[in-house]
Amino acid sequence: MEKDFHRIRRLPPYVFAEVNAMKARARADGQDIIDFGMGNPDQPTPQHIVNKLTETVQDPRTHRYSNSRGIPGLRKAVAAYYERRFDVSIDPESETIVTLGSKEGLANLASAITSPGDVILVPNPSYPIHPFGFIIAGASVRNVPVTPDKSFMEALERAVVHSVPKPTALVLNFPNNPTAELVDLDFYAQVVDFCRHHEIWILSDLAYAEIYFDITPPPSILQVPGARDIAVEFTSMSKTYNMPGWRIGFCSGNRTLIGALTRIKSYLDYGAFTPVQVAATAALNGPQDCVDDIRALYKERRDVLIDGLAAAGWQVPSPTATMFAWAPIPPAFQHLGSIEFSKLLLAEAQVAVAPGIGFGEHGDGHVRIGLVENVHRTRQAIRNIKSFLGKYQDVIEKADKQTATH
Ligand SMILES: Cc1ncc(COP(=O)(O)O)c(C=O)c1O
Fold it and tell me: For residue 348, is pLDDT > 70?
């Protein structure tokens, strides 16, 4: 009997598993682990959204199968969001679809449009479903650097010249998980121009559209004229409204891609539970001060974390978007790589972070710190990290001297 399934063989064991197992053991031993490892919002969904759910669920008609591509009211609410936020008009009938979280949409669109052996361009490091959605679908993934500058465009050029067959799709994700990098509309315009010319589909993940600080709001690729000839964009309720468990996201843009996703989903699911969709509609159409509050909370945590780490001797760039700090491993520990460093931090400081290698080989010099612990616990974590770094002070000074002489 075949037990070595082809698809499963292409999925490496979960990279975070080792650190997670250690975290579980430490907790079982009674240790208080301060956990920055996950990108899982810790705050409750705003009350008016929860109320809409509980009100709607009283109506037994909502208990039936829902609509696979999303109830019309929710698709209209997404179109209204695009109009007011990006000045982009979207046809709710043909240019947007509701997904069971953006992750599901990404994975199913990948399988809808991919033939085995297709070459797909994916940033590295990246959120795991970006490469693995396509790997599950049988594609070959070619990495491109995540830095949104000249090197990115050069990597695209090289990919088109050297890939056989030529790439069929490109994944983008700005603001980026895990690096928190951002791009402007000029960048999107260049990429759209390039991909239109080379007939490459673009799947852009805008999950962090509304989680930004001290900057102008991140743009949508659909603002670029002609983008919808080749691009779709994924947005999500998870981070904007603290609704990660509700599993609601959207895919909007190119009709052919939306059509493909609609078709495949019509075979796979009956849509999200109707009360969840009604509550999501209320979230998008209702008061948006809850989103300001969510942003303010992450910003406060970010400032406490980044200032505190700097004072403890760990210089980490301050993210201007997302709910993550992408922290370079301090020089004295670089040689360990991100898994061993994360394990050391857990053992010595009772602080859990996500090792950068979990996001791809180019992430191994970093760890990702999620802004998912409150300010009080973040301060405690900083104290722990400070005494951990203090303990290794000699090692650090030696490494600093070595760096300075090279
Ligand atoms: C970049 C990115 N895309 C998508 C997702 C998944 O979002 P959803 O909850 O909508 O599936 C996440 C979640 O962390 C993410 O970081």
Answer: yes
Q: What is the C-alpha separation between 203 and 122, in angstroms, rounded?
A: 10
How many angstroms separate the alpha carbon of residue 353 from the centre of ligand 1?
18
Q: Is the pTM of this model over 0.85?
A: yes
- Cα 235 to middle of ligand 1, angstroms: 9
Q: Does ligand 1 come within 6 angstroms of the Cβ of 108?
A: no
**Are 49 and 275 spatial neighbours (Cβ–Cβ below 8 Å)?**
no
Q: Cβ distance 284 to 80 under 8 Å?
A: yes
For the domain bounded by 6-44+290-405, which CATH number is listed?
A: 3.90.1150.10
pLDDT of residue 405: 66
Q: 207 CB less than 6 Å from ligand 1?
A: yes
Is the pLDDT at 145 greater than 90? The verdict is no
CATH number attached to the domain at 47-285: 3.40.640.10
Structure tokens belonging to residue 363: 């992430």
Q: What is the per-residue pLDDT across 73-98, written as a single tens digit (0 to 9) for each?
A: 999 999 999 999 999 999 999 999 99
Dihedral sign for Cα atoms in the order 111, 68, 72, 275: negative
- The residue-averaged pLDDT of 347-368 equals 95
SS (H, E, C) 31-100: CCCEECCCCCCCCCCCHHHHHHHHHHHCCHHHHCCCCCCCCHHHHHHHHHHHHHHHCCCCCCCCCEEEEC
Residue 356: partners with Cβ closer than 8 Å, 6 or more residues away: 125, 178, 326, 329, 338, 363, 364, 365, 366, 367, 368
The answer, yes or no, to whether any atom of ligand 1 lies below 6 A from the CB of 103, is yes
Q: CA-based angle 84:86:92, to the nearest 5?
A: 70
Ligand 1 atom 1, closest CA: 177
Domain boundaries, the chain: 6-44+290-405, 47-285
Q: Is the pLDDT of residue 395 over 70?
A: no
Largest CA distance in the chain: 72
In this structure, what token pair is assigned to residue 66? 């829902």
Q: Which of 78, 104, 109, 205 to mutate to test the pocket of ligand 1 (most atoms within 8 A of CB)?
A: 205
Q: State which of 104, 172, 206, 238 you would mutate to test the pocket of ligand 1, scoring each by most atoms of that ligand within 8 A of its C-beta.
A: 238
Say if ligand 1 is within 6 A of residue 39 CB.
Answer: yes
Please tell me whether residue 138 adopts helix, strand or coil conformation. coil
Q: How far apart are CA 224 and CA 188, in angstroms?
A: 7
Looking at the chain, how many residues does it have?
406
pLDDT of residue 104: 98
